[in-house]
Design a protein that fits this description.
By secondary structure, the protein is of the alpha+beta class. It comes from Flavobacterium chungbukense.
């Protein structure tokens, strides 16, 4: 770990004490969202020290022109920026004619932040002495409504402690924002219209190029000791992209002055007239009032936790970690809109760009399938189906493929490739496999086969065509090979025959061919419709099968392992335990050339194949490959610890499984990779859930049945989780003596526990 200031707590993320060195990290960790929008935990009042200002709107992006030193054919024309949205939270504050700024106060004490995950709100409180000698106590609560998801609410309380105070509130909305990571230092927002009302204001702006229109709004109420004093702004200042109101109040020592600010965004994705939409949102929020909005928030989060919570007894840090991960996942994606997806930073930062990586299919779908209605996961699959034409276009125009071969983008907002690293964009092609695997995984878990004949079969055909064309026949090996790739381990580029890539390519072809046969038998009308549409013949399928049947996999007979790639054993194989700690993380200490020549592995690669296709390999094969590759893995990807935790548990390496679980669950809270100030690792958080459910719980789906092989770390007294399996809710509770399986409702559910079938209406397994 690289930081240790978050206080252990079962339900809250808590920081105590003000430290300017921690501000940007805390802005990430205390971020809030509601699926439609989100924001970093920036201060509402002005702050003159270093900060990373960030508010974000789901689905809104900007195609920033790619900036490279040497342009290569097929390079993506743009990098899709996750846009810093207009600022609605800002409230400049003057107290006795001095600006409130924590960086310039004479003293700041009793500073405390709390992100209450149970109830879905963020609170900040402190006492401060300004340079003019005025001493104040401040309490600020902010939340983004789950029910009214275009609105956020701030309640900012100020109590003068040593004298009466003249308090001036200057709330504003401002579209004149910039991104931290703009390639060309240009602005992304074009102001269109400003509208001012009595206590409300609107700034409408649109993105350059993409022309997303957004109305940013605010409504202000000034209170004294909790009562609305019905004050109007004394002045209104506005420019083409900003409106700021000024409210002057006088409050006696020991009394409390407050501003309640309702703000948020209405966007052209959902409104023909964004201004009218904003006025409607304000009307709805004001009618409810602060107390009702907060109560609704608490109730909405209670419903989420009822299904998605994981309890851990006896280990507060482990409990805090899993709830933080579950909380952030639910803040990021609600499943309501199939146009949206799960970005790697969610609403916590700008890094990476794009809203979709292979992380969604490989890591996130299991979480949403098991803790939500299956329609949520189906929406994630539909997202990819709707972008199939773009995937075909990407393969054709950027890589020269033909005949409907599809390569899904490494990073995308609208289906177009928009990743700005050539070796990743063109070579990390294994992402195609994760999309096909997600279709299989969805059907395996939900039992809903209808997605495949309706939509999924077209995706599988496009992916199979890609792998068929991407492989080449080696006369020397007398087998098909796949050259010039980057596997999941991004610390090797342009290598040949990455085991995971070759294996999932073969599997994709086999799976696509099997589904074509199944649909032909069970859904003949869909079979004819799809094959006519894509012009697929039986001869072409035979050609696919030749590639799959004769795919080459590099192996070491001496070590009894699959090789990560042809030349892996040619490296200087110094294990991580012998690497000087001062050299870590290597991606921040070494040249890229040195990283690429090293044996060090960023994340599960061969082991990713063992995770997806566990039933294809023996336990002995897993053990040999795990012990070899883990010794060279530096876990500098957020996606790495969860897979290793699951496999360590499967191998009864429980101390190792627990260590990896802590690393994945507290990756951001403890800043393992020294980068949390850039934002949290949202997509890998689903892997934390998998570490418990699939790792310690041993949950698998085989032959339409749930299988469990429960284990428990020695550090815990017990843990529990719920699974929505084919519309039946199963609760699993594990302690050192027994495991209890309980099904909600009257219908029994047959499960397999440690290899034996049991009825889970209420079954207790003695451990």
């Amino acid at each position: 770990m690289n930081q240790d200031y978050i206080k252990p707590d079962n339900w809250s993320i808590i920081e105590e004490g003000f430290d300017v060195e921690r501000v940007k990290s805390s802005e990430s960790l205390f971020s809030i969202g509601n699926g439609a929008m989100g924001q970093r935990a920036n201060f509402e009042e002005s702050y003159s020290a270093e900060t990373f200002q960030g508010s974000y709107i789901a689905g809104i992006y900007y195609p920033d022109k790619t900036k490279v030193g040497w342009w290569k054919n097929g390079y993506p024309k743009y990098f899709a920026k996750v846009l810093n949205a207009p600022n609605w939270i800002g409230i400049d504050i003057e107290i006795n004619e001095e600006n409130l700024d924590l960086n310039t106060c004479t003293e700041v004490r009793n500073f405390r932040r709390e992100l209450n995950m149970k109830e879905g709100w963020y609170n900040r409180s402190f006492q401060a002495i300004l340079k003019n000698g005025t001493e104040i106590a401040v309490n600020v609560r902010r939340f983004l409504s789950l029910d009214l998801d275009e609105a956020g609410i701030i309640k900012y309380d100020i109590t003068p402690l040593n004298k009466d105070a003249k308090i001036v509130y200057k709330p504003y909305v401002d579209a004149g924002v910039t991104n931290e990571d703009a390639n060309w230092e240009e602005k992304f927002w074009e102001p269109l219209e400003v509208k001012k009302g009595t206590n409300e204001a609107f700034v409408t702006a649109q993105t350059f190029k993409t022309h997303f229109k957004v109305t940013t709004f605010m409504h202000n109420t000034i209170l004294a000791n909790g009562e609305d004093i019905h004050v109007s702004p004394s002045t209104i200042d506005s420019t083409t992209d900003k409106v700021q109101y000024t409210y002057g109040t006088i409050i006696a020592k020991g009394q409390t002055s407050s501003i309640q600010k309702i703000g948020g965004y209405t966007v052209s994705l959902n409104h023909e007239n964004t201004l009218a939409g904003a006025e409607k949102v304000i009307k709805s929020a004001v009618a409810l009032g602060y107390d009702a909005l907060l109560q609704n928030q608490i109730e909405a989060w209670a419903k989420i936790w009822e299904m998605s919570d994981i309890t851990i007894e006896g280990d507060v840090k482990a409990q805090q970690g899993i709830r933080f991960n579950i909380f952030q996942l639910n803040q990021t994606y609600s499943g309501k809109d199939s146009r949206l997806n799960i970005g790697p930073k969610g609403f916590t930062g700008e890094k990476y760009g794009g809203s979709t990586y292979w992380d969604t299919e490989a890591y996130c779908i299991p979480f949403y399938m098991a803790t939500k209605d299956q329609q949520v996961a189906r929406n994630l699959l539909t997202y990819r189906y709707n972008q199939l034409d773009k995937a075909i276009e990407n393969a054709k125009d950027n890589l020269g493929f033909k005949n409907g071969a599809a390569l899904y983008p490494m990073v995308t907002m609208n289906g177009e490739e928009c990743h700005n690293e050539w070796e990743i964009t063109h070579e990390e092609i294994h992402r195609n496999g994760a999309i096909a695997f997600a279709i299989y995984n969805y059907y395996r878990f939900t039992g809903d086969y209808s997605y495949i004949p309706e939509k999924g079969l077209e995706v599988l055909i496009g992916i199979a065509r890609f792998w068929h064309q991407r492989a080449s026949f080696s006369k020397d090996k007398n087998q098909y090979v796949i050259l010039g790739v980057t596997g999941p381990n991004e610390y090797e580029n342009n290598i040949n025959n990455n085991f995971y890539t070759n294996y999932i390519a073969k599997w994709c072809i086999d799976f696509a061919a099997e589904q074509i046969e199944k649909v032909a038998t069970e859904y003949p009308a869909d079979h004819k419709r799809v094959l006519d549409k894509v012009n697929l013949s039986s001869e072409e399928i035979k050609e696919w099968r030749k590639v799959a049947d004769d795919m080459y996999f590099p192996i070491s007979k001496e070590l009894g392992i699959y090789l990560q790639q042809d030349g892996f054993l040619d490296k200087d194989l110094v294990p991580v335990k012998d690497l000087d700690r001062s050299q870590r993380p290597i991606n921040q200490k070494w040249s890229w050339d040195r990283v690429l020549r090293s044996p060090y592995i960023k994340q599960a690669d061969v082991l990713q194949g063992f995770y997806f296709f566990e039933d294809h390999f023996s336990k002995d094969e897993l053990k040999r490959n795990f012990e070899f590759y883990e010794s060279f893995t530096v876990h500098e990807s957020s996606l790495s610890p969860c897979v290793h935790s699951i496999q360590a548990a499967a191998l009864d390496k429980m101390d190792m499984a627990y260590t990896f679980y802590l690393r994945t669950s507290r990756l951001d809270l403890d800043d393992y990779n020294k980068e949390v100030e850039e934002g949290c690792h949202i997509t890998s958080m689903a892997g934390t859930w998998m570490s418990i459910v699939e790792g310690f719980g041993g949950m698998r789906v085989k032959n339409d049945q749930l299988h469990f092989s429960p284990k428990i770390p020695k550090e815990w007294k017990g843990y529990s989780f719920k699974i929505n399996f084919r519309n039946q809710i199963l609760k699993v509770a594990v302690n050192h003596n027994e495991t209890t399986f309980t099904v909600d409702g009257d219908q029994d559910l047959t499960i397999i526990v440690n290899g034996k079938p049991e009825i889970a209406s209420k079954f207790v397994q003695i451990n």
